[in-house]
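Side project, low priority. Logging it here so it doesn't get lost.
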Amino acid sequence: MIAAGLLLLTGITVASAAPETRFDLMLDPRLELAGIVEMLSSPASGTQSTTRVVDFMLPHPEERARIERRFGSFRTHAAVRLHAEPEVRAFKMDARGQVLLRLTEPPSLEELPGSSPAAHTPGIGGSGLVDRWIGSLRGFARDSRYMEFHRESSRQLELEVARYKNEVIQGDYLAKIDAYTGLRYRGRYRFVFTRFIRLGAAMLMVTHHGGAVQITSIVGPDEEAPPESRTHFPIFPDDIWHESAHGILDESTDRFREEFSAKQALFIAPTRDCHDWHHCVREHITQAVAARLVRAELGAAAAEKVLADAVKTGLPYMQAIDRSLEEYETHRKRYPTLFDFYPRILAAFPEAPTASRPQSAP
């Protein structure tokens, strides 16, 4: 356990900041709207049908019944019919979230300035289909007076959101990664809740004026909770640290872009976590920092799982970066910030392969 008011990480004790105020939390009206329409689009609305969209989940039975009572008469609405079309069913829930978080709240659902929602839906029928989908949600929200229902839902989940916020504040997650990196997360971290997306998070980072960032994590309910329990949103410290590490460290990684590009040949093909080589470098570093914080807070077994999961998603050099960070933790006087340690992180990646020497992960 960490004593109140102190942060103990890898042998270094630092004073904790005042109670964390960089978090925002809300039941998201855009994600909930899309979930309700998706639920109504299937005849098997009372079951977790295998024909449903990837990553979609049904809410708690009582909440499901309440939705049916309120919106069942809208099953023939144009938005519900559109959601049953094969092209739209190929539109995964996390991709839908990436679009919706770039829009204003219902019923207007207008593009936020500079957001370009359609740019985040490669392979989903082009911007025309995305525009039709957004337009259908806009019409459903207007015709059903959806926002009245959403305000009531938000009140019903107030206690759960308050519980989550209190645990996040007590966890002091941003202060811990600030201390670990010697840098500071400059911006807001927003948790948006929805009852319709499976566990896991879709990350959105928006750069604001002055270099500040906002990271938004989509949080789904606990699928392992017993059926009789109410909606419960679990907290994953490794996800919080991974995403906030992007807000702190991506700028540092970008400043070493030229040096990392010398190892470009290590990149084989795009994966979920590696769109290109520089993105792959970013992911290695942020995931490795998250794993070190997990090791300090939750133990070696939990950290090894984070590392192994990252390797499975296409980050083969996680163990090498993890070992490198041990040196950083041991010599903090030499490396006051993680930025000061970047040349050593660069060295932890293997030499780029040549035509005669095949690539191998350490």
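Brief comment: Residues 182 and 337 are 4 Å apart (CA to CA).
Revisit when time allows.
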